[in-house]
Design brief:
Layout lengths: L1 E6 L13 H17 L23 H10 L11 E7 L2 H22 L5 H29 L4 E2 L2 E2 L7 E6 L9 H15 L3 H9 L23 E7 L20 E3 L9 E3 L3 H15 L10 H19 L3 H11 L7 H12 L18 H13 L4
Antiparallel strand pairs: 1-2, 2-6, 3-4, 5-6, 7-8
Length: 385
């Protein structure tokens, strides 16, 4: 399972760029093509299937744009107002879901003596897959609300207090950042500039191809295999009607203890716990769909691997002052210069014990930001298998 967050970046010079309209226009493009190509979903008005939230389906693009854009609280139109959440099941997870759907359809056909064409079977499978992922996304948004640990009018924040809209997508394409696209572009440039037939043949054979389709991978070419995923746009504020009392909900805020005795609350936690969120989102999938996950493909295993790599890099290269500052931002604690304190704080941050005899250089050294982010990367962006 791969889940990540993308914050909306408001344009201070263009207030119209603060609208979510462009995002929803983009998300609807695929759905339009889907409806036009498959008559199973085609209606007289030829509209798309629409967006969903916690309770409703087939919500119109115009309504969801208006709702998100107007749900601003005290923030101005030139301030960030929403986040994108991407939920992408792995190939193995999608394979498990499709197997369950096919078993259900097979039993239904036998028991009810139905006669369906291959096209109808494909369409029915797609409807069920979309429905399963829509309902799973609602479970994910329950975890999303729960991890803020906030209250509204004396009641703990729940998924019903969120304003979000999602869509299940079925297609993916290769973009210019994909490693295979970059490699193939170099090879194709060599092919175009060569006149040697033998060299051209060898270069053509070295081109990276899609595992499922066998097509040469290029920017914009479709990815083969299962490509179900969910895009969710969630408002930065809760959905209460009173704009003066709306609370800001950012999944990018650091989760930490607040050392304050205000209202007799000591060490109250604030922020969004991404670590717990990713763990619970994975558990929800496994329980909801009765999925037996291989430990090596679990979030916990992936996180441990990242921790081990991070410790190895930190031990080899040391910690520069600039990197300490960056790591402090991720951890939500101050990492100071003394060696013993660094080891203690790293132990707490990484969740594993660092031996007391381990020597960590404290003098400024050249160290890239990539090293500092090695451990934080899993919790910050999620993971994919």
């Amino acid at each position: 399972m791969y889940i990540n967050f993308t914050p909306h970046k408001a344009n201070v010079n263009n207030s119209s760029a603060s609208s979510c309209a462009n995002i929803f226009e983009y998300l609807e493009k695929e759905e339009r093509g889907f409806v036009e190509e498959d008559s199973f979903f085609k209606e007289e008005n030829n509209e798309s299937i629409g967006f969903f939230n916690q309770e409703n389906i087939n919500l119109s693009k115009e309504d969801v744009i208006q709702n998100i854009d107007e749900n601003r609280g005290k923030r101005g139109v030139k301030e960030s107002n929403f986040y994108m959440i991407n939920i992408s099941p792995s190939y193995l997870e999608q394979k498990h879901l499709i197997k369950r759907v096919d078993q259900f359809l097979e039993e239904k056909i036998i028991n009810e003596k139905l006669k369906l064409s291959e096209k109808d079977l494909i369409a029915a499978r797609d409807v069920m897959m979309r429905d399963l992922l829509m309902n799973y996304s609602r479970e994910v948004m329950k975890e999303y609300a729960n991890n803020f640990n906030r209250e509204i009018n004396g009641k703990k924040l729940s998924e019903n207090d969120l304003m979000y809209y999602g869509r299940v997508e079925t297609r993916r394409t290769y973009n210019f950042r994909d490693k295979n696209v970059i490699e193939n572009k170099k090879i194709l440039d060599k092919i175009n500039s060569s006149s040697d037939k033998n060299e051209i043949k060898k270069l053509q054979e070295s081109l990276q191809k899609d595992y499922f389709t066998g097509d040469v991978i290029k920017e914009g070419s479709p990815k083969g295999g299962f490509n179900y995923h969910v895009h969710i746009v969630v408002s930065r504020h809760d959905n209460t009607n009173d704009s003066r009392n709306k609370i800001s909900l950012s999944p990018m805020t650091q989760y930490r203890s607040q050392n304050s005795k205000l209202n007799n609350q000591v060490n109250k936690t604030i922020g969004f716990n991404r670590d717990v969120f990713f763990e619970n989102a994975e558990k929800s999938f496994d329980q909801y769909f009765n999925y037996r996950r291989d430990y090596s493909k679990s979030y916990e295993a992936h996180k441990k691997k990242a921790r081990t790599k991070g410790i190895r890099e930190l031990t080899k290269q040391g910690i520069a002052n600039s990197v300490k500052k960056e790591l402090s931002n991720y951890a939500g604690i101050t990492i100071s210069n003394p060696s013993n304190l660094i080891k203690m704080q790293l132990s707490q941050t990484l969740g594993i014990n660092i031996p007391t005899h381990l020597k960590i250089p404290t003098n400024p050294v050249q160290l890239t930001l990539k090293v500092a982010k090695t451990v934080a990367k899993t919790i910050e962006k999620g993971y994919g298998m």
